[in-house]
Amino acid sequence: MASKGVRVKNKHAAPVQITAEQILREANERQIEHVAPKPDQNISDPEELAELRLEKRKIYEDNIRKNRGNVGNWIKYALWEESQGEIERARSVFERGLDADHRASALWIKYAEMEMKHRQVNHARNIYDRAVTILPRVDTFWYKYTYMEEKIENIAGARAIFERWMEWHPVEQAWNSYINMELRYNQVENARAVYERYILCHMEPAVWIKYAKFEVKYGEIDKARSVYERAVEFFGEDNISPELLVSFAQFEERQKEYERARTIYKYGLDRIPKEAARELFDAFTAFEKKYGDRKGVDSVILNKRQFQYEKEVEENPHNYDAWFDYIRLAESSGDVDKARDVYERAIANVPLVAEKRYWRRYIYLWIYYAVFEELDAKDMERTRAVYKACIDLIPHKSFTFAKIWLLAAQFEIRQKRISSARKLLGRAIGMCPKDKLFKGYIEIELQLREFDRCRTLYDKYLEFNASNCQTWTRYAELETVLGDEERARGIYELAVAQPLLDMPEVLWKAYIDFEHALGETDRVRLLYDRLLEKTNHVKVWISYAEFEAAQDEEDSTAHARHIFEQAHQELSKGDDKQQRKMLLDAWLSFERSCGADSEAQKVVRMLPRQVKKRRELVNEEGQSDGWEEYWDLVFPDEETKPHLKLLQKAQDWKRKMMEMQQKKKLMQQQEQEEEEDGDKEEEEEKNEEKKEQEAEKDEQGGEDDNSSKADETRKGEDGDAGAAEGAAAASA
Predict the structure, then answer these.
(1) CATH of the domain at 112
(2) Which of the listed residues 250, 266, 292 is the one where a domain comes to its end?
(3) pLDDT in tens, 425-448
(4) Contact at 8 Å (CB) between 687 and 695?
(5) DSSP one-letter string for 366-414
(6) Concatenated DSSP letters of 1-65
(7) Alpha carbon distance 259, 514 (integer Å)
(8) Residue ranges of the alpha helices (H) in 482-623?
(9) What are the counts of helices (DSSP H) followed by strands (DSSP E) for the chain?
(10) Per residue in 643-667, pLDDT tens?
């Protein structure tokens, strides 16, 4: 019987996984498949040796025949022949390999090393000579060749090889090797000559610096300075290198020529772009900290900050905050031309969008520029030109800046050109009238004591904006100061008659204070009455009552109390309980100040009490969102009639129920109408079926008549039988 397979209950992955790499590693470590080493073979017979050599040569020849381009096969073959002492055969193999691939540098090197191993110097020299002739761009051949000549102390030959190599303008390391060889044998002049050719082949600042350091190392200070000067002249102002100047300045610093070093640093900072002069600037800062005075250090820090600001404004020319910092830095340096140049560069970055919010910071550049020209540069004509250019630049049809117009006018006034200032402000009002322009122009005329012009400006201002209550108030105050009370009263009357006012309470208060200051008590009462016809605000009532209480009349207290009572009646009609409580608090304090305890107790009984209530919260969808508690004010007159509120709620509930019943009746009527329509359709269908059946009966012949008669007689018999059975049952 076949055995059943093992069932695996847990099919989840094991916690420790074994990879194929681990399996192979363990197999290798345990050496499951043991490979026996190749046995040693001892050869004692020359014939057997010759046979073995022949076999090996055949193997090597077969490998070469299969792949002639494989340099490794040629090298192995030649080195095996060398190991057998067959030098001629090894040379033959190398030559055959070079014929197959003359660009294989490894083949040339192994060939030459074999000759050197067997002290065949001329053969090796011949091989290297052929190699550098065929492959002059392979530096390894030249290095090996010169090393071999120097090893056998053939310095003249090595120098000749280097000269041949330098004709090919090799890399910098080749020149350095040539110079190092000359210096190993103390040939300083030869090394200097090599450097002269070196700097012409590789025109890099690092080469010039290395040449100068070479001269310093051997004590030739003047020659080193000459090398640096030649380097600066060679590269010129357009391609000057910060690295070269730093090295030159540090050289002068080591020679204690501090002024020369400072001059070199300043020369570089003035000519090298700021983004490329970071290294030079850091070196100059360190130099000034070590050898400079406070002024020099400040100058370095100033240049550093200037570099930072230049970078910021270059990245974002419309970053006006960076321009402000840069301008302050330029002004602190005391150089007017430099500061002016920064201002001109800053104002050239006009905002790209004609919206006022983008121009707010930009316009201050012009303001600072004009102030700088007036106060620091003392150039009034240029200041006037700055203001004019700014005004011409602003798109006044879209928006304007009243500050610019007013500053320009004030500048003209300081220059005692009043007519120019008036023309400028008149032009501003004509082009783009604004509240701030009118206020500034009026203020200037007030300072000049030109009151007729102030009246004219106020008239124009009110034509422009008649809803500004402050303008009406200031106009009336001006007339009051000038002593024309009737004119001031007329202005107030015109103001309160305006259909639209931005702050009418300010205007009415000013009008009342005006009449009160003149002692016109009746006019004040009349104004309060007129104001209460327009508004029922509690502060108006309190102010009216306080005014009456402050009068020196006998019945002033009664008048004030009457006003409080009237105010309480009016506010009781509304729903604002806070205003009503505020009135009662003011009324109570008034009664207590008068010393009327009975009246004060009367007011106390009118005060509300705080009651905690609950109300339902409703969300945006009209659904209930919970309940919250709040404090409400309950007045005594509300507590005396609680049944009215209950009756009102009952009436609301009754009205809702009646509406619901009406909706139900309408729905029932609609359902009945739909049912009646269905019954009529069924009756019509039945009538049509009856008509069809009658028509079919008419078509039938006499057979139908006879059959009907037989049926009738049968039915009569059945009826008689049924009647007899019924009678028998009744008798039983």
Answers:
(1) 1.25.40.10
(2) 292
(3) 899 888 888 889 888 998 999 888
(4) no
(5) HHHHHHIIIIIS--HHHHHHHHHHHHHHS-TTT---HHHHHHHHHHHHH
(6) -PPPPPP-S--SPPSS---HHHHHHHHHHHTSS--PPPPP-----HHHHHHHHHHHHHHHHHHHH
(7) 78
(8) 485-496, 504-517, 521-534, 538-549, 556-572, 577-594, 597-606
(9) 35, 2
(10) 555 666 777 788 888 888 888 888 8
Query: Using an 8 Å Cβ cutoff, are 141 and 105 in contact?
Result: yes
Task: Give pLDDT, residue 142.
Answer: 94
Cross-strand bridge partners of residue 632 = 611
**284: domain CATH number?**
1.25.40
Domain boundary among 664, 688, 708: 664
- Asked whether residue 65 is assigned to any structural domain, the reply reads yes
What is d(CA 326, CA 355) in angstroms, rounded to the nearest whole number?
25
| Nearest Cα to Cα of residue 508 among 478, 476, 462 | 476
Whole-number pLDDT of residue 702? 47
Output b/e per residue, 117-146; b: 16+ Cβ within 10 A.
eeebeebbbebbebbbeebeebbebbebbb
Which residues form the domain of 226?
203-292
Condensed to tens digits (0 to 9), the pLDDT of residues 273-296 reads 777 777 887 788 788 777 766 666
573 found inside a domain: no
Residue 593 inside a domain? The answer is no
The set of residues, in sequence order, having a beta carbon less than 8 Å from that of 421 and lying 6+ positions away, is: 408, 409, 410, 412, 413, 444
CA–CA dist 567, 252 (Å, integer): 96
Number of domains in the chain: 3
Tokens read off for 573 = 């009609």
Which residues make beta-bridge pairs with 610?
633
For residues 345-364, give the mean pLDDT: 90
